[in-house]
Amino acid sequence: MRAGNIKLEQLNKELETVDEFSVHPGEVSSFVWSRKGCPKAVPRKGRSANYTLILCVRNVKKKAVVSYRLFENEKKKIKDAKTGKVSIKKGTDAIDFYNFLKNIELPTNEQYYLLLDNSKIHKTTKELEELGLSMEELARQKNITLVYLPRYTPELNPIELCFNTVRYFTKNLPTDNEGELEESIDKIIDMINQKDLTKYLRHCQEFFSFDESGN
Length: 215
Hints:
Helix content is 30%, strand content 21%. The protein is an alpha/beta fold. α5 crosses α6. It is globular and about 60 Å long. 23% of the residues are buried.
């Protein structure tokens, strides 16, 4: 389902939103202090690894985080079906997202609407088909309607506002190694659980347009 086909009242009830965010151990703080007249020294720690945080939240006032997973991205060989060339990809793929969606535990058996961007990994790819898996069928089994946003419209997804929190605190909390990164992510998730995420949806609704019937 496309976002333009969902009614406004449905957005306000049983809405979830999900996306991925890239994080790195040893992120550099966005600001530093120095004495007057002294040059600022910004530490450069380098990036030892690349991680992805997949986060799913609900449109509620407290304890909005439904599920999250932090994992290190592994290099994967991808073969082009047309040219036969093999390339190395390092990042999240459809199987990663499928497994995340599979393990989501919903609080009730009601119908849920999952707002997500139009990324290829959020759909049934050839890689999933070869394994006999379907993203749409999995969503149906979990009583979830997948609602795809138009391309290149992150401003429509409330979870991007959550990632602003993640982005800020991964630069200002200890993240020099995997253990510190995991501990800091847990603290950030606790912070997000204290926020009123209904405000995030209302902010994003300003970018939606609906006709008189509510569509």
